C-alpha cells in the first residue's frame, strides 16, 4: 500500500534535520587494541543492565571496569532519540533481526507463522521500547524531571480515563502505591528526547579513567579454567582478542545473548551441548523457561476527530514543532494510557493483574512491522479509517514457556528461539477475558459518545466462527497476537538446589566461579508490565551484591 514508504519519506526529512541539529560532543570510545589486557570487571553488553553496572561499579576509583558492547555507539543515529520513532526502528540495525521459529499455536496471521523478536539488547533501538520511555522512575536519576512529563498529545486521554471510571476502575499512578487501574503513561523523556540508560548512566561516567567502553566488540565466549571464569574471547574489527579479569565476568547480553554465550562456553543443557560437540563444563538449564508478553491489536474506529493521523504525523508543522519546541507527536511514543487489570478476580481483590491495556491514540500500520500475511494486511488496510485508536490487550503472566538453543557452534549464527506462544490453553482463556472486558469498556457512555466501533476486528478469521464468539476471539488471538518484545527468564535465579535454576540468589552461575548474569534473563517469572525498569533494578541490586 506504500503507506510505510510515505512515512519513511517524512521521517527521512526529520532524520536529516535531527542529524544537523545533533552535532553534540562525541564521547571518547576506545578501540580494543588500546585497552589493557586485564580488568577487575568485564561487562558483556551495554544495554540497560550493562550501562548501570558499568557506571556504578566504576564509581569506586580503585576498581577497573571494561564494558564490551557488540553494537556501535549510541549517538550515531539521531532516530534513536525521537520518541515517536519506535514505529520506524524495526528491522534496522537497532535490533538483532532475530526471528522466532515458526509457531505451532500462534502467529497464524503472520508470514511463516513467526515473528521478529527483539531481545532488549539495545534499549535504544527496540521497536517496543516503551519500557525505556515509560520506565518507572525508581532508578534515582532525574526522577522529578521525568515524572512530571505526561506526554499528552491528543484529547483522547480524557475519554480513556472517563470510560474507565464509568466501569469502576481507579485512575492511578502506576509507579505509585496502586498499580491496578488506568493511568496516563509516564515517559522518561527529557526535553523531548528519549532518555536511555546509556545516556542517563553511562555518559556522565565516560571520562572516568578506570572505565573503558568499547563498542563493536562481539564477545563470543567466556574463557573458563578449572571452573573459574578468567576472561572473555572477543571479536573486534575482524580480529580475535583475549581479555582477562582479576575478579569477574558479568554477562548482560540479554535474554538471547547471555544464554547463547553461556552455551557456547560449555554451560548449558548437557544433551544439547553434547549434540553440538561442545565440551560440557556445567550442566544447567540455560535457555529454558523463556517467557514473553504477547499483545493483541484491537483497532477501533471513532466518530470524532483528533487522533494521530498519518497526515498529521507527517506534516511540516509536526516536524517543526518537535525541533523548535520539543513538543507535538514526535515528542511522545503515542501510548497515552496504560491500564493494568485483573480479569478474573473481583476488582481490587489484591491479585496481580493479568492483562495490560495499552491505548494508542492513532492507528498504527501494524502489518508493516509484524510481517502480517499479505491477505490479512490488505484486508485491514482497506478498511482502516483515518480517525481511531488502538487498544492493545497484553498478556502479563503467560503460562506458555519456550526455550533458546544454539543453531550451531558458530557464535555469529543466530540461535533457535522458540517461545512456544499460546501452547497453554490458560493463556487463551485470559486473552478472552481481556477482550470481554475491553468490549464492556467500549460500551460505556463515554466511548459510545465518540462513536467507537469494533468492526475492524471482523477480518478473515470470521470464516470459521460467529463474530466475537469465544471461538472467534481464540482464532483472532492465534492469528494476530504478537510479541511485545519482553522476552525474559532464560537464566532463572533461585535456590542452587532447585534444578530449574541457572544462577543463585547472588546471580552467580552455579558451579562456576567469577561469572554472573545480570539482565532480564535471571527473572524467574515475567513482571506485570514493561521489563526495562525491573532490569535496571536487577543491575542496581547486583552492584550492591558485588561490592
Ligand atoms: C502456519 O500455521 C497454519 C495453521 O496451523 C498452517 O496451516 C500452516 O501450514 C503454517 N505455515 C507454516 C509456514 O508453518
Ligand atoms: C457519528 O456521529 C454522527 C453525527 O454526530 C451521528 O449521526 C452518528 O450516529 C454517529 N455514529 C456512531 C456510530 O456513533
Ligand atoms: C463481517 O464482514 C463480513 C464481510 O465483509 C460481512 O459479511 C459480515 O456481515 C460482517 N459481520 C459483522 C458482524 O460485522
Automatic annotation (TrEMBL):
InterPro entries hit by this protein: FAD/NAD-bd_sf (IPR036188), GMC_OxRdtase (IPR012132), GMC_OxRdtase_N (IPR000172), GMC_OxRtase_C (IPR007867)
Keyword field: FAD, Flavoprotein, Signal
Cofactor list: FAD
Residues annotated as domain Glucose-methanol-choline oxidoreductase N-terminal: 39-294
Signal peptide: 1-18
Domain Glucose-methanol-choline oxidoreductase C-terminal: 398-539
Protein name per its UniProtKB record: Uncharacterized protein
Record flagged with keyword Flavoprotein: yes
Domain of life of the native organism: Eukaryota
Entries under Pfam families matching the protein: GMC_oxred_C, GMC_oxred_N
Organism: Sinanodonta woodiana (Chinese pond mussel)
Binding positions for FAD per the UniProt entry: 219
The keyword Flavoprotein is assigned to this record: yes
Family note: Belongs to the GMC oxidoreductase family.
